[in-house]
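Supplementary notes for students who missed Thursday's class. We covered one full example, reproduced here. Read the sequence, then the structure, then the short commentary at the end.
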Amino acid sequence: MDLRDDETGRALRSVLAQPKRLALLAYLALARPRGAYERDTLLALFWPEASESRARNALNQALFFLRRRLGDEAIRSVGTALELDRERVWCDAVAFGARRETEPRAALELYRGELMRGFHLSGCPGFERWLDGERERLRGLAVETALDLAAREAGADNAVGAVSWSRKAARWAPYQERVARELITRLEEAGDLSGALKAFEAVRRRCVQELGSAPGGEVQGIADGIRRRMRSEAPSGDADPRPRTVGGGPGSP
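Structure (token representation):
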């Protein structure tokens, strides 16, 4: 997650260094619906085991630091609630969501994988549940955006572009059969039959090792069809046909 002062463009390193301040700022930036959040809600999320007086004091200290760093109006008090001025603080995850429909390619440049990867806030189960949900939501949006772009490229007869976007989706959703099916199909359409089978074997291996079961019959059926096609297209006496390979790039299965 990248947080910056929107006026200077500088990374908010002093904010990022302290876990609870970072978590509080991330929640104010990303929580939905957008708007102001009651202080009591924040107390329950970030100081669930503390007494009310200690929790309120801790929240006030965090707000004092954030306002000193970001400006007094960066986090506004709205009655008993708090609201982040999103014009003041730039967040890559927020920008990704805002640009996804109108500028999908630019939006995906902002998506760098799991939200706040490796971040854990001990003793705050409510925040942890919220963060897990946001990770899944943003990952799902990224995957759908990449698949939409793959379909656009395929519709424009750009097989290489379709494969590239499908690979990105597969990198972000390595266990989703629908995404694996999409990648395998795009590789087959591009004429990279061996690459399609490699993609199938990669997802089959992951599913067996991590989930304890092989991919469903539809994915297996596509792979079987590719094998039959390879045998039928192989020159007479050639038992090991080598179709051309479409460049994989980062994240290839």
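Commentary. The beta strands are 3-5, 37-38, 75-78, 81-84, 89-91. The longest helix spans residues 125-155. If anything here is unclear, bring it to office hours.
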